[in-house]
Structure formats: structure tokens, C-alpha cells
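RECORD TYPE: protein structure
NAME: AB hydrolase-1 domain-containing protein
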Amino acid sequence: MHTEHTLRLPDGTDIFYTDSGAPDTLDYTTVVVVHGIVFNGYVFERLHEWAPKYNARLVLMNRRGYHGSTPFTDAEVEEMHQGRKHFQDRLALQLACFLKHFIEKESAPPVNPDRSTGGLVLVGWSLANATTLSLLANPTVVGRELYEAIEPCLRTLVMYDPPTVALGYPMPPDTQVYYPLAVDPTVDPEERHSAIAVWVSAFYDHPDLGSGEPTGVHWAKPSEVVDPADTATIDCYSAEERAKFSTPFPVVLATDFPLFQPKMQALLQTQTHAALFEENTVSSYFPRLNVVHISGTRTIAVCIWAYTKTLRMYTDARASGKAIRPVKFVLVPGANHLRSGLCAVNPFARDAHLLQALHLRFNLILADLVHWSRSQGNITSAHRSISKSHLAALTWQLFVLEVPTLGRLSCSPFIPDTGKGLTFGPDFMRTEHTLRLPDGRDIFYTDSGAPNTLDYTTVVLIHGISFNGYVFERLHEWAPKYNARLVLMNRRGYHGSTPFTDAEVEHMHQGRKDFQDRLALQLAWFLKHFIE
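PREDICTED:
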């Protein structure tokens, strides 16, 4: 059971929040989630029941102007219209005071020596990133005493699916964009409110995200729903839930729409650059902080475009040798903006999947914030008959998967008894990495991560011909059950790993021993990486 509270900040501002409460451990992580536009913190309230299972305390904070939190004054709204930096600085200070409350008054456990447990994780969902990034953008705003109280405890900032407007990014030129946030006095406010709710919670089929170009993004209205799995999240909620989760349109109009003004957008673009890419700031202000940018392959165009643009800026900055804030980029297959799983039979399942997609697998969140599994991949053909069995087992080397007793291997809830195959549930995680060897070659691998034991075994698996390491990726979720860390290494020339040079190919044709010797040395270096 969670509780509801209102915190009075030193400047008299009230901030409403719900709280799962502290688990009965001494090393739990406090996770503060800040909501986006239209939907308030209640939209995530079902996550509260999951927090103790992940050794976490979950706090859902309502932004200014939303339920229970102090609205902006007329003067503050005018500051937004004018793009005044003081407005964002005030938000940063208020957020810092809110976090300090949990560190000092609620006795949040400190970060442990390897920064894997304890401390605080701050999650900004959607438009909330305009608020959460303010904390990182200006070292002069938060005084030394307040900074020294927060910095040792703040482990990670999660940018969960921010739209372009939260980061101050312009729309790509010459692109026709369906954008119900645009002011249109001819449209009834309630119609706009409903249109925004559907827009942010629908599923989109983007034609070519890999291109990195605007033409690879679906900018139009949501397509007509054919598959029940593609039902907009808002339509999965009851009328009572919609009333509780969403905020009246006049409040949204007064609270958030001034952020879309040109002067404010210019300020937010400057803020994003300062928080992530300004060398002096990132090297001295929260220098130990990890940042994770998460998006979904079926989210809104403005969010996947923000992800694409930030990734490109980050890649270019790294290539130029700039000292920038380390950011992990996580793209969740099949995820939309409001939830990451199916509108499930189990009423908590969509939020359980969101929990995974947010990487609130709290005991790992700083050790390795990682990808969610590939969404709803069915086993077909030869395995179809298994879905009809009351007891079936698939043995892959060391791993035995018992279908009815292990819930992560189950029939899709939308095809329960059609014999269309088995579906691996979307609740396991692994990281993706590229290791640069001493000779300059890159080796790509996926990693289940280290179990929370002191005697686990590291299993390095190398694929064969045609199929790369992804063919075994579903084994990652089973590794911890066998006290193992599973590493799937891609051979040279396969996805992410350096191809062979023409000279190396010629060495193969000639049967040169130094070709195999080189492979042996590269493999030895790879293994040494995990040992040392």
C-alpha cells in the first residue's frame, strides 16, 4: 500500500507525491519519477506494488500545477513566455530541495561503494525532462550545501522518452507533422484533450528508424487499430482511471503550453546542451552521475526524433573528443510512449512491463541500465505443437524452460490456444556493448550482467555460421537462475564486430597460421576483459 503526501518546500511551494514506502532493507534505492504532460503521477501508481520486489522505494512526484502541487503564478507563467532562465533555475532548486528531503528527512540509504545499490535514481518521463534536466544545467543555482547533500546520493538520471519540446529541439524542416499540442482555437478544448491523450498513448509503425532521417519516422496521425495489442493505452483504462490519471485541459494549457513558445524552446535547447554536452559543467557538476536515454520503437514521432537527434549529437561529440556526460541509449522494441507491454489480461501487466522498460530493475539500474527483450517474438514452425502441450520443455545447452510452470515462457495473451507458437514474456534484460581490443578491432557482445552473488560463473558463448549472437539472447534471462553471467560474443564480420580486411581474407584462402593465431590472441584479450 502506498501513501500520499504533500511536501512544503523552503520557498512555500507544495509538491504532492505518492510513496511506496521504504523496504525492510538497509540498501534500497529511492526512485523518484516525474510525470509528463496531461497525465499526472497517478498514471504510474501500480508500480508501487513492484518496488519492494526490486529493493526500491518508489516516489511519484507531481509537477507544479498538477494535482496537489502549487500552480504557477501569473508572474511565473509570464517568465515562461519570455524564456527567462530564472524560471528553470527555480525548478532546479525546488527539485533539489525535494530530493534532499528523502536524503535527510527520510534517511535514504547511501550509495554503496560500487554504486550498485542505495542512493537516488531520478526518472523524468516525457515533458518532465524539461524539469529534471534543469538540475544538471547550471552549477550556480543549487548552493554548495544543497549540492553536497545531493551529489553523493544521486546515482542516475533516466530520460524516459522525452519529446523534442522538452529538449528544445525544432521539428525537422519540410516535414508534415500531426501535432495536437499546436494551438488551434477552432478545435474544442475537450476534443484537443482527448486527441492528445490518444496521440501520446498510441502505437506507431515507423518505416525506417535505422535511417536516422525524418523520412524514417511516422509523423502522421495514429493508424487505425487492427491488432488488439496496438490499442492506445488510454483506451485500456477505465473511465475512473482516465479521470484519475489525466488532468483537466485548462490546467494543462496554463501549466505546460507556455513551454512551447519560441523563447522558451531556445532556453530549453541551451539547457539540454549545458546538461549533457558542456564540457566544464559535466566535468565538475554531478560528475559521477549516469544518464540513460530511453525510447521505444513504436513511440510518438517527436519522441523517437528526440532520441535520434540526441544520439547523433552524442556520437558526434564523442568522435570529436569532447568531454561530455556519459549517456546510455536504450531503444525498447515494441514500446510506445505510455506503456511498454500489452494492454494485458493481467491488469498490472502493462505496468510491470513498464517497470522493466524504465529499467527499474533497481538492483541493477546503475550497474548496467539495459535493453528490454525483443518484443513478443514467437517461436514458429517446428515448435508450434509445443504451445498445445500441458508440460513441455526446451533444453538449450544448460537451460531447461518448463512452459506451464515458468511464466516467462507462455502463450501470447492474444492468441491463447491457436497453436501459433510460444511467446517469451518481455520482462528480461541484457546490455549491449562493443569492446575495443588492443589491436583496434571491435567485438560486439550482449551481457546478462553479474548476478548478486560472489561465486557466479561467466559463460562466454560464440555463435556459428549465418546466425549471430542474438539467436541465443533469450537465454540471458535464465542466467541468474543458474548463478551465471551469460556473454554472447559476435565473431569478426558479424553484427557490431570489425569485418575481416582483404588481407585477412587472403590469409584464410592461403591457410596461413597467423590468421588463426590472430583470432586466438583476440579471443584471449576478450576473455581477459571479463577477468580483469
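COMMENT: The first strand starts at residue 3 and ends at 8.
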